[in-house]
Amino acid sequence: MDLELLKFQEDDFDSYYSLVSNESVMAQITERAIPYDEAKVDFQKLLKRNEKYEKYGSYKVYDCFDETFVGLGHLTLNEKQISEAEIGYMLLPEYWGKGYGTETAKKIIEIANQLEIMVLKAIIDPENLPSKKILSNLGFESQEFCVIDGLSGEVLSKKI
After folding, report:
1. Is the pTM of this model over 0.85?
2. Closest to 71 in 3D by CA, of 12, 153, 149, 112
3. Which DSSP state fits 12?
4. How many angstroms from the chain centroid is the CA of residue 112?
5. What is the pLDDT of residues 66-83, one digit of tens each?
6. Considering the chain, what is the average pLDDT of its residues?
7. Which strands sit side by side in the sheet containing 84-91, from one edge to the other?
8. Structural domains counted in the chain
9. In angstroms, rounded to a whole number, what is the distance separating the alpha carbons of residues 136 and 123?
10. Are 115 and 57 in contact, with CB atoms under 8 Å apart?
11. What is the structure's pLDDT at 30?
12. For the domain that residue 74 is a member of, what is the CATH number?
């Protein structure tokens, strides 16, 4: 599989909304689908973050074979600790269990390797065993369990 990551642009809202409005996708992220008006506001914030840095931000993930939208990957700088960044990804359900999560995470790590980052972190729902497996296979180790915005989270990290 050959994936391409391109930063989200103004005309990509429909792709973004197809993810965040999907209950299955959001079940282990926010535990709820995001309504249209809220998604519009969130998308504008995403675009502003994308403009701030060349490499950090949220990327749309495409399968180059048939040019289909697969999901979102992000690399977010920890502005309080600039040697750290967070990675994350969301995929449409039809791409789950087919290697797209692993390939997306690898692509994000490739971007991070071009930057002056020493530690990558990922925050997942502790119940999301497929994501934990992907990250563990890529060298991430569990650091702590916590509560973020009222939801259970597990922080994994990797030195690069």
Report:
1. yes
2. 12
3. G
4. 13
5. 889 999 999 999 999 889
6. 94
7. 3-7, 57-63, 68-77, 84-91, 119-124, 151-159, 141-148
8. 1
9. 12
10. no
11. 85
12. 3.40.630.30
Give φ, ψ of 19 to 5 degrees.
-80, -60
In this predicted model, what pLDDT tens digit does every residue of 99-123 receive, in sequence order?
999 999 999 999 999 998 999 999 9
* Two structure tokens written together for 3: 């994936």
Residue 20 is part of which domain span?
3-159
Helical (H) or strand (E) element with 13: helix 13-20
Lowest mean pLDDT among 12-16, 30-34, 40-44: 30-34
110: its two tokens: 């490739």
User: How far apart are the C-alpha atoms of 2 and 84, rounded to whole Å?
Assistant: 27
Tokens of 26: 């959001």
**Tokens 């990922």 appear where?**
122
User: What is the dihedral sign for C-alpha 93, 147, 50, 139?
Assistant: negative
Task: Go through the chain and tell me how many residues it has.
Answer: 160
Tokens standing for residue 98: 């087919």
Q: Tokens for 88? A: 């994350």
- Helix 129-137 / helix 100-113 crossing angle, nearest 10 deg: 50
Contacts of 111 (CB under 8 A, 6+ apart): 5, 55, 75
